[in-house]
């Protein structure tokens, strides 16, 4: 089954898909280039949620918003124990997280930082602070990209203690 046939099943055309992708990540050329890669994901998601009254467009947006490649989050680099890592804000369901690469060291943050009004206006500061605090723990415990990273104590950011749980 080709891309157009799959998209017709869920009520989308290539143009609609491209428009939704483009509005999701503000990158229409990426959307157009990768539309065929997502037709299987869309069809599977649509078939799973067919009874939930989601429109084809909503289904499409859910698939793309949950795809880490398409989300443009807050990110940076930091050196932990002599190794340079790229970190990125990630979505963990209704919560937030942070992932460090190389090594795919991913953490879920709780409570949800969106509950703190300060976070909503200072997300870059929040993640920079979190990364710096995680660096201190990693340097102390001599983390490498192969070791299991653990953050035993909450990290206090803007007066709120946040627990960073390992995603496994």
Low-confidence stretches: 21-32
Amount of beta strand: 15-25%
Largest sheet: 6 strands, antiparallel
What is the overall silhouette?
Answer: globular
The tally of strands reads 6
The value of Rg in angstroms is: 19 Å
Sequence of strands across the biggest β-sheet: 1-2-3-4-6-5
Helix content: 40-55%
Q: How many helical elements?
A: 6
* Average pLDDT level: 75
Q: What does this protein look like?
A:
- This protein is of the alpha+beta class.
- It has two domains: 3-65, no CATH class; 75-166, no CATH class.
- The protein contains six helices and six strands, in the order ααααββββααββ.
- The protein has helices at 3-9, 14-25, 28-49, 56-65, 117-121, 123-141; strands at 75-80, 83-92, 95-101, 105-110, 155-157, 160-166.
- The protein has a six-stranded antiparallel sheet with strand order 1-2-3-4-6-5, covered by helices on one side.
- A hairpin with a 2-residue loop joins β2 and β3 (95-101).
- α2 packs across α3 and α2 (14-25) packs across α4.
Task: Give the topology, please.
Blueprint: H1 3-9, H2 14-25, H3 28-49, H4 56-65, E1 75-80, E2 83-92, E3 95-101, E4 105-110, H5 117-121, H6 123-141, E5 155-157, E6 160-166
Features:
single chain, 168 residues, alpha+beta, six-stranded antiparallel β-sheet, globular
Concise account of the structure shown:
By secondary structure, the chain is of the alpha+beta class. The protein is built from 6 helices and 6 strands. 45% of the residues lie in helices and 23% in strands.
């Amino acid at each position: 089954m080709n891309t157009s046939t799959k998209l017709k099943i869920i009520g989308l055309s290539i143009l609609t898909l491209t428009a939704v992708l483009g509005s999701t990540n503000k990158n229409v050329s990426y959307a157009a280039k990768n539309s065929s890669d997502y037709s299987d994901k869309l069809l599977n998601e649509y078939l799973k949620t067919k009874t939930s009254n989601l429109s084809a467009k909503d289904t499409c947006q859910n698939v793309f918003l949950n795809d880490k490649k398409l989300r443009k989050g807050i990110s940076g680099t930091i050196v932990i124990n002599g190794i340079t890592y790229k970190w990125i804000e990630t979505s963990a369901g209704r919560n937030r997280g942070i992932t460090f690469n190389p090594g795919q060291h991913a953490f879920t943050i709780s409570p949800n930082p969106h509950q703190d009004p300060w976070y909503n206006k200072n997300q870059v500061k929040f993640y920079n602070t979190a990364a710096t605090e995680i660096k201190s723990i990693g340097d102390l415990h001599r983390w490498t990209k192969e070791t299991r990273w653990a953050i035993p104590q909450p990290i206090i950011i803007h007066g709120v203690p946040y627990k960073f749980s390992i995603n496994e």
